[in-house]
Amino acid sequence: MKVLVVDDEAMICEWLQFCISQNPSCQLTGVAHNGQEALELFHRDEPDLILTDIKMPVMDGLEFLHALKALGSRAKVVVLTAFSDFSLVRQALRDGASEYLLKTEMQNDLLQELLNRIAGELQRKNHQEEPDVANVAQIQSVISHILRQTRELREDDLERLRQCGIRWRNNGLFALAVWKQDMEENGLLFPEESPARHVAGFDYTDRVYMIVGNFPKTLSIAEKARQLTEYARHVQVINHCMVGISAITDEMSQIPFMVWQASCSLGEGFYTGKKRVYEPQYPLKELFRRNELWKNTFTKFRVHLHQVQGGQRYELIKTFFEVLPSQKILTVDPLCKLCLDALDLLEFEAKGNGIVLDHAEELHLRLQQCITLDTAKEVMLDAAKQCCLPIDELQPKSKNICLAVEYINAHYAEQLSLEQVAAQVYLNPDYFSRVFKIETGQTFINYLTDVRLQHSVQLLENTALRVQTIAQQVGYYNASYFSTTFKKKYGVSPYEYRRSGS
C-alpha cells in the first residue's frame, strides 16, 4: 500500500515516516508540507492512502480534499487534527475523508492498526478505474484544478486538458479575470467580432471567474498586446464589470502563471473599486516575491491579533487596513479568508464575554462575497467595535487574582497547576477557578497558555534559539505538543512563523 504524508510540522512528518517504515505492507511514497506539494506528489505516485493535516499554508487540507475529489481520486484519506472543535473535521469527512486521528492521541500501535486495516480493505477493492470526466461539472473541476497550479504544465497536464476538450494553439496565450459578483445570471457576454479565441472559462476561486484563450499566429507581438487590451475593454463595457488581464505567452506550459497574473491584475480593482480594465503592474518574478512578503504579513497579523485584546485589537485591525492600500496585496482571496478567520475569532471571544454580534450572518456573507477593500474594512471595523470589550474591563480587580496573575507571569515556564496557583493566593481551587474566569475573561489554563505562547513569539522573533529550546523555556517539555498548541492558537506552526520573519 502506497502512503503519502501531508503535514507542515516537521516532527509529525518524521514520526509518521518512522511508523510507516515499520509496517511491511506499506511503502512511503513521499512527504509534503502543504496541499499543493501533495497534489504534485499525488500525480506522480498515485498513493493508496493519504495522511493529511487540515490547517496548512499555501493550500490547506480541505482545499486538498476538494482537489482530490475533482480528480476523481479513489485514495483513502485520513485527517490528522489537533483541534478540540471538530467543525473542520466534520467538513473534511463530508468532503471525502475516510476518518480522522487526533495528533495528541496518536500512538504507534494505534497507527499500525489503522494501516493494517486500510491495507486489508484496499486488497479487496479494484483501484484501477480512471476518473470519470464525462460530465460538464467534472470537466470544469479538472480544468480549474490544473490551471490553478503555480507551476509549469507538464505533458500529462496538457493531455488531461485535451481529454476535457481543451484545444489551444501554442501561440498568443492569455488569461482574463472578472469578479463573479459582477457577472450576470447567464454568464459573461463577449464581443461578436475579435481575433481573440475564447478557449475555456472556469471558476478560479470563490470570487474570481477566469477566461483563457489565444490569438492567431499572424499577429505581431505588439498587435496581440493591443488586441488583448481592446478585447478586455469590450468585455468590461458589455458586462459593466472589472477585468484583469495577464501578459501574453507563446508557451502552453506557462498558462497557470498567466492565470495567476490575471487574478492579481484584477486584485488592483479591489483597492480602487472602479469598473475598468486592469493590466499587469509587475512581471511574474516580482509578483512571486511580493506574494511571499504578503504571506509573511498575513502570518504576523494573525499572531498579533491573538496577542491583543479590547481596544488594542480594534486599533490593530484599523492599522492593518490603513497600510493595505500601500502594500497592494493582490491575492485577494487569501486576504479575505484572513478577514473571515479574524471575524470568527472576534465573534468567538465576544460570546465568551457575553456579547452577541449584531447581524453576524450578514457580516460573514458580506466578507465572503466582498470585492472591494472598503467593504472588507467596514465589516471588520464594525465587528471589532461590537465584539471587543475595553481592555480595562478584562483586567483582574481583586487582590488575590492580581497576585495570581503576577505569579503566573513570573513562573509560566514551570509546570504550574490551578491548585498550585490557588494555594499561592490562599483560595479554594474551585472558588479560584470561578473568580479567575470572571475577572480575566479566560480560564486558568487558557490564560497560562496565552502567556507562554506570547513569550514564545518574542523568542521566535528576537532570538535564534531552536524551537525545541524555546518550547522548554516557556514551559513545554514536549516540543511536538508545543508546536501543535502554537498552531492551534495562531494558525501557523512555530517553524512557519519564524520563516515568515526571515
Automatic annotation (TrEMBL):
Origin superkingdom: Bacteria
Signal peptide: none
Keywords noted in UniProt: DNA-binding, Phosphoprotein, Transcription, Transcription regulation
UniProt xrefs under CDD domains: REC_YesN-like
SUPFAM superfamilies assigned: CheY-like, Homeodomain-like
Residues in HTH araC/xylS-type domain copies: 402-500
Alphabetical list of Gene3D superfamilies matching this protein: 3.40.50.2300, Homeodomain-like
Start and end residues of each Response regulatory domain: 2-118
Modified residues (4-aspartylphosphate): D53
Pfam families, per database record: HTH_18, Response_reg
Function: May play the central regulatory role in sporulation. It may be an element of the effector pathway responsible for the activation of sporulation genes in response to nutritional stress. Spo0A may act in concert with spo0H (a sigma factor) to control the expression of some genes that are critical to the sporulation process.
Record protein name field: Stage 0 sporulation protein A homolog
Species this protein is from: Blautia hansenii (Ruminococcus hansenii)
Taxonomic lineage from the root: Bacteria, Bacillati, Bacillota, Clostridia, Lachnospirales
